[in-house]
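agent> call fold_tool(seq_1)
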Amino acid sequence: MLGRFLEISIHCPAVRESLEFYQRLGLQLAVTNDIWRHQYAVVTDGKVALGLHAYEFPSPSLTWIHPGLATYLPSLAD
């Protein structure tokens, strides 16, 4: 029930500087949907995505998405 793998999420207090670092390594800026309230960017090599988040969390973290997750909430509460 994990869903689809999205990214490796990384806590980056300075997103712009981190973005520039990963671009110098050859990663490209990915198109995102602005769903977060904190500053973030996503870079990719075409195979894996790194999410650079200006939000503190256990880092790095593997992140999945699951369309329709809200429909599973009752079973998660059990």
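agent> call fold_tool(seq_2)
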Amino acid sequence: MNRLRSAALAVVAAALVLAIAPSATSQPRLSNDDAAIRSALQIDFPRLGGVASVRVIDADGIHVFGVSMDKPMVPASTMKVITATNALTTLGADHRFVTKVVEGRQRNEIVLVGGGDPLLDRTTLRRLATRTKQQLAATGRSGRTMTVRLDDMLYPTPSDAPGWLSGDSPTYAAPVRALGLLYDYSWDTATNAAAAFVDALNTAGITANFGGRRAASANAAAVATVSAHTVGGAIKLMLIYSENNIAEQLFRHVALATGNEPTWQGARQAARDTLRSLQIPIRNLQLLDGSGLSMENRLTARSLTMTLRLEVDGQHPELAQIVDRRWLPTSGETGTLSGRFWAGGSDCAVGRVFAKTGSLAGVQTLAGLTRGADGSWKIFAVLTNDSYGDSRPVIDEMAAEINGCLAA
């Protein structure tokens, strides 16, 4: 689809050519398709508004387009691309989260121990209650009134991440605890989950009451366990629906997996170390949380595209699952992109772009992949800060340009 572009934009675009064109000696000659992408984005870029950073590369890492691609930017929820990459690298997609019940300090006491399962739900707790009932019956306690204690001490006392605004928690991210039900955005998710477990025990025929928090003994005997959910399942839900609670749980699991404390500082260090192990430049990056909610987070278009490229470079099968299993939102079809790419000239790209969205006050971002007109993967990141108009239609058109379905 042809679009009218003002003469003023054309003048600005022409000025951009000198700013973004790589030297002839440093880059291979672009294919005709990649040259067309560059020409289109040179015109689109000035329409973004605010402060913007863009980079496009191909699956071989060849530079196609870039403006301010090393400028640290507030990434919003495109930070979840980093969180997913780190979780898959350190834990693997098949790693399972364990929630368990152990013996308490008295014969009529058991302890529910949270293991940081970000997908824990009532169905899983009912299964745990059934297994607990079976063990209590085997030890002659099915007729006793049981007191359920709560141990959510895998993580320290919750606090806000640096850069979270007043009111962000629990509205947009619950205080991070080692026990909580999926989609529970409340102050004390652990107590809510424990109450749900007590209800499940009573429904199963075990008279039970909640006795508050108490740490389990280090050598406490196991009563029952469940491990229904995987890292892969958590990442899929986190990326498609931009689920903040899941992201913050994974942020801490990466810390634990790398021998760091599951604190904000420990998780930040683990995230940086994992990116460094993948040869992603971490200079000027600020990885202050796992969800991207912090206004003090900083990523670059270069760091995002380099990270996304790992999914299609053929060298990282654990990361390739993000693309192969469609764990990113699909343009116009799934998750946070289901309502986009239906307006203007971007509708030709419905079903063709796989990308993570990001949105905060004054921040609009999109980072992902699409197959270009030549059939090869194009990896892109578009980040706008200090832009208080809606830049999403322009970003979507740029993604359509990268796909090649939108004629210049």
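agent> summarizing second result for user.
Residues 1-19 have pLDDT under 50 and may be disordered. The chain has twelve helices and ten strands.
agent> awaiting next instruction.
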